[in-house]
Amino acid sequence: MAIVAKPSKFAKFGRPTLAWIVGLLFFFPIFWMVLTSFKTDADAVKPEYLIWFTPTLENYLNMTENYDYWRFAKNSVITSVLATAFTLFVGIPCAYAMAFNPSRTTKDVLMWMLSTKMLPAAAVLYPMTFITKSLGLFDSHFLIILVLSLINLPIVVWMLFTYFKEIPKDIIEAGQMDGVSTWGEIKEILIPLAWGGIASTALLCFIFCWNEAYWTVRLTTTDAATLSKLIEGNRAPEGLFFGRLSAVSAAAVGPIVVLGWFCQKQLVQGLTFGAVK
Amino acid sequence: MGRIVLKNVTKSFGDTQVIPPLDLTIEDGEFTVFVGPSGCGKSTLLRMIAGLEDLTSGYIEIDGNDATQVPPSERGLAMVFQSYALYPHMSVRKNIGFPLRMAKMDQAEIDQKVETAAQSLNLMDYLDRKPADLSGGQRQRVAIGRAIVREPAAFLFDEPLSNLDAALRVGMRLEIGELHERLKTTMIYVTHDQVEAMTMANKIVVLQAGVIEQVGSPLELYHKPRNKFVAGFIGSPKMNLIEGAEAAKHNAHTIGVRPEHIEVSTTGGQWEGKVGVAEHLGSDTFIHVHGIDGCDPMTVRAAGDVAVKHGDTVFLTPQAQNIHKFDQKGLRIE
C-alpha cells in the first residue's frame, strides 16, 4: 500500500469549525444590527425582547419620511461613483507609466504615496476645515469627491500597479511597434487585459468611498451629506435610539453589501483571467 | 524601402556600458542576422533600432531620416517577439488586423489584407480562435502575420524561434527565409544560434560584449574569420584552436583547423591521439581525440561512418590550405 500523509484531526474537523466561528463572529454584529432595526426603540433596550419581539417597519418608514434617507443615499452614490471614476481616470495612466516605463525613482514614489496614508487625518482637520470654508467649498459635492479621490488614490495606484505588472511587457511593446499611441495602448490593450484587476480595484475604491466617515461627517452639513452623516446624525443628543440607529445603519451598508455579493463571482473570475504564455 | 544606418551608437545601463560606440549600415532588402552569445547586446541593439530602448548617444537613420527621437509607433518597423506577444483578448483575425485598425484603414480593406496574410501563412482555419488555443508554431505565424500586413520598412525578429521545438524551428526557418525571398523587405534577425545565422542571412553581424567582431556574408565568416572569437563561434562543431609548438611551426600564436578539414587515419599521419568519444550520426562521425599537444580534445568530422571506438589510436592530418593563423591578440594573419 502506498504511504500517504494522513490529514490530522485538526485539519479535518478543527479547521472548518474554526472557520465557522470566525465567520459567525464577523457576521454577528451585522445580523444583530438588522435584527434590532425591526424593533421599536423601546423594545430594543429591553432584555426580554432580545430574540422574541414583534417586528415592525416603523424605523424604516420613519427614516424615509422624516430623515430624507434618499437625499443622503443620492449624495453617497454621486460622490462615491464620481470619486471612483476620477480616481481610476488618474490612477490608470499613473500605474501604467510606473509599471511599464519605470524610472529610478518609481519605487520611492510608490513608497511616498503609501506614506501619505500614515498621516493621521486629525492632524489636518483644522487646516482642511479652514481652507475649504474660506474657498467656499465646504459642504459641496466637488469637495467630497476631491477628498475621497485623494484619500483613495495611493491605494488604487498601488493595486493597479500590481495588476499591470502581471501583464508581459512584450505585449505592451508589441502595441507600440504596431503603431498605437499611448492612449490607444491603454484603451485597446491595457484595460481589456487588466479588466478583472481594474474592476476589483474600482469596487474596493467604491466601498472605501461609501464607507468613509471621518471627512464626510466633518466637511458637510446638508447639501453634500452622505449616509455616514445620516448615521452620525441619528446618534442624537436626545439619547440613543437603537432601533432607529440600526435601521439607518442597515440601510447605509445594505447597498454595498448587496453590490459586493453580486460582484463576488465576477471579481474572482476577473482575477484569474488567463494570460497567454 | 528600409535602409538603416547606425552612427556612433552607444548604450549604457546606469554606469555599465553595454554597447560601446558602434557603426553599422543595413542595406535595403538585406537579411541581416545579429548573432553572439547571450548578453552580447544583440537584443539591446535590435530594441534600439525598434525604438523600444533609448540611445545613450549616437544616431539612427531609417531611409535617410533621423529616427533617433522618433517613438517606436512612428518608425514604420514591425517586430516579432520571442514570446510572440500576441494580444490574448483578441482573435487571430483581430490580432493580425490590429496594426491596420490602428492606422484607421477601412474595415473592408483590413479584412482583405488579413485574409491574404492568413492564406500565405496557412492560418485560414484559425482566424476566429484566440491565441491561447493555438500551438507555438501557429502563434508565431500569427505574430509574423501581424508584422507583414503592415508592409513595414523593415522586419525585426527577436529570437523568434527559440521557444519552438527543434523540428518546428527548421520549418519556420525556411518559412521566414521564403518570406524574405518573396517580400524582399529588409529583415534584421537576432539569434544566438549560429546555424540559424548561417542558413538565413545575407549578412551576419557577430557581436561580443556589445562590440562588432565581424560583419560579412556567412561564407566570408566561415572561410575568413577575422579573429579567434568569430572562428570559434561560426561553424559546428567548433573550430579546433591549437596553441604552442604546432602553432609556432606556422609562425603563429594560435592556429585553427575546422573539424571537417582534418583527415583521419588508423595507420599514420601528422598527429597521434586516442579516441575519447565517437559520435556516429550515420552521415558523419564526430570523433573527439585526446592527447594532442596544444588542443585537447580535438574534434574531427569524418564523412560517413568511420569504425573507431573509445580507446583506439588514430592519426590526424590537417588540410594545409585550410589552416587559419592568429597572432598573439587573436587577430587573423593572412
Automatic annotation (TrEMBL), chain A:
The chain crosses the membrane at residues 18-38, 77-97, 109-128, 140-161, 189-210, 241-263. One of its GO terms (cellular component) is plasma membrane. Its main location: membrane. This is Trehalose transport system permease protein SugB. InterPro entries: BP-dep_ABC_trans_perm, MetI-like, MetI-like_sf. It is a multi-pass membrane protein. It comes from Pelagimonas phthalicica. Residues 73-263 form the ABC transmembrane type-1 domain. It comes from the Bacteria. The keyword Metal-binding does not apply. Belongs to the binding-protein-dependent transport system permease family. The keyword Metal-binding does not apply. It is found in: Cell membrane.
UniProtKB/TrEMBL annotation, chain B:
Residues 4-234 form the ABC transporter domain. PANTHER family: MALTODEXTRIN IMPORT ATP-BINDING PROTEIN MSMX (PTHR43875), MALTOSE_MALTODEXTRIN IMPORT ATP-BINDING PROTEIN MALK (PTHR43875:SF3). It comes from Pelagimonas phthalicica. Belongs to the ABC transporter superfamily. PROSITE patterns: ABC_TRANSPORTER_1 (PS00211), ABC_TRANSPORTER_2 (PS50893). Keywords: ATP-binding, Hydrolase, Nucleotide-binding, Transport. The keyword Iron-sulfur does not apply. SUPFAM superfamilies: MOP-like, P-loop containing nucleoside triphosphate hydrolases. Its EC number is 3.6.3.20. The keyword rRNA processing does not apply. It holds the Pfam family TOBE_2. Coiled coil: none annotated. This is sn-glycerol-3-phosphate import ATP-binding protein UgpC. One of its GO terms (molecular function) is ABC-type maltose transporter activity. It comes from the Bacteria. InterPro entries: AAA+_ATPase, ABC_transporter-like_ATP-bd, ABC_transporter-like_CS, ABC_transpr_MalK-like, ABC_transpr_MalK/UgpC-like, Mo/tungstate-bd_C_term_dom, NA-bd_OB-fold, P-loop_NTPase. GO terms for cellular component: ATP-binding cassette (ABC) transporter complex, substrate-binding subunit-containing; maltose transport complex.
